[in-house]
Amino acid sequence: MPQVSGRAFQVTAAGGSFELVERDFPEPGPGHVRIRVQACGVCHSDSITKFGLFPGIQYPRVPGHEIAGVIDAVGANVPVFKAGQRVGLGWHGGHCNYCEPCRRGDFILCQNQQISGISYDGGYADYVIAPANALALIPEDLSDVDAAPLMCAGVTTFNALRHSGAKAGDLVAILGIGGLGHLGVQFAAKAGYNTVAIARGQDKAPLAKELGAHTYIDSTTHDFAAELQKLGGADVILSTLTDGPSLSQAVGGLGPNGRLIIVGVPEKPFEASAIPLIMGNREIRGWASGTGMDSEDTLNFSSLTGVKARIETYPLEKAPEAFDRMMSGKARFRVVLTTGA
Predict the structure, then answer these.
(1) Considering 8, 55, 81, 287, which has the largest number of Cβ atoms within 10 A of its Cβ?
(2) CA dist 167 to 21, 41, 81, 170, 341, Å?
(3) What is the reported pLDDT for 23?
(4) How many CB atoms lie under 10 A from the CB of residue 68?
(5) How many CB atoms lie within 10 A of CB 232?
(6) Is 101 helix (H, G, I), strand (E, B) or coil?
(7) b vs e for 144-172, b when ≥16 Cβ sit within 10 Å of the residue's Cβ?
(8) pLDDT greater than 80 at residue 1
(9) Cα→Cα distances 125→3, 14, 31, Å
């Protein structure tokens, strides 16, 4: 398919403003596809592009890494995907296949990994061109708007939980019920874990139960670590928070061999005592999001079990407003742009 034109919201420079432009989207090169964007989630990590938080970002740059759309052109040497397929594109924007992690099959740790909307132009646009090895097929019964946030917030929480070592019936606590946490609670409950939701304020208890939590702990009125110990200690705590002191406190809520898994990025470093880690064989670790195949598993699991993000939608032409809404922390819970395609 020949070159096409469409809209794109680009950031002109680090810390600069959004600019709506009409641009040409060429035919994809070898190993790449062109996607007609149907929906794109607005993620807090888009601030990396907006404010130049990573070194080496080339501007102007179009943000967006929670993309759902339809392939409209396929480059050479793409054996799996074809035009007309519904696909998603997430944070993991492609891997090299040749570095040591890739040669070991650990593509998410590729030393030359690309990031959608940071390494190349992302989904705040009518089209995006991306490496085919980053894509996930979208189930037919999952809408584009529902699929988009699962490409980052969804795969991050789902993939961390399924690799946590927790077994059905184990006590799994989700720390925070925001954009990531409200999905984490659903995934944990649907996976058969004894799910505890932890957040600030008793007003969040009904939501936690609605999402599937078996127990809710209000961290403003209770020491949540002590409450977890009353339940036997958590096998896994999945932290979606940006609050360092809460992470320090969370270690005290782990049971023997328990794991604290961090997917939210704390604003500041946090401290943890080595004694409970050593005495209980406890562990603190981070978890990267996932590859295209991990995202596809996330989409399929969500379709099978009914897991959905709570979203607010904005048309593409209101991308700056949508970004500001997301950054305000007031969105309930994910913001998604739609192109009207």
Answers:
(1) 8
(2) 50, 31, 34, 6, 42
(3) 96
(4) 31
(5) 12
(6) helix
(7) bbbbbbbbbbbbbbbbbbbebebeeebbb
(8) no
(9) 15, 19, 21
Query: Which residue reads 């641009």 in tokens?
Result: 23
**HSE-CB of 133 using CA atoms within 13 angstroms:** 16
Beta bridge partners of 68: 39, 88
CA–CA separation, 285 vs 247, rounded Å? 11
Instruction: Provide the token pair at 112.
Output: 């030359």
Pairing of strands 4-11, 18-25: antiparallel
Cα maximum dimension of the chain: 63
Question: Long-range contacts: 102-107, Cβ < 8 Å, 24+?
Answer: 107/133, 107/291
Is the N-terminal amide bond of 224 cis, ω within 30° of 0?
no
Rounded to the nearest 10 degrees, the angle between the axes of helix 155-162 and helix 181-190 is 40
What pLDDT shows up at residue 40?
98
Give me 172's structure tokens.
């799994």
Length of the chain: 341
pLDDT digit string, tens, across residues 74-92: 999 999 999 999 999 999 9
The reported pTM is: 0.96
Domains, in order of start, for the chain: 4-152+290-338 (3.90.180.10), 164-286 (3.40.50.720)
- Integer Cα distance of 33 and 291 in angstroms: 17
CA distance 337 to 194: 34
Among 84, 80, 66, which Cα is nearest to 140's?
84
- Reference 335, options 315, 318, 311, 319; nearest CA is 311
C-beta of residue 290 within 8 angstroms of C-beta of residue 66: no
Three-state SS at 314: strand
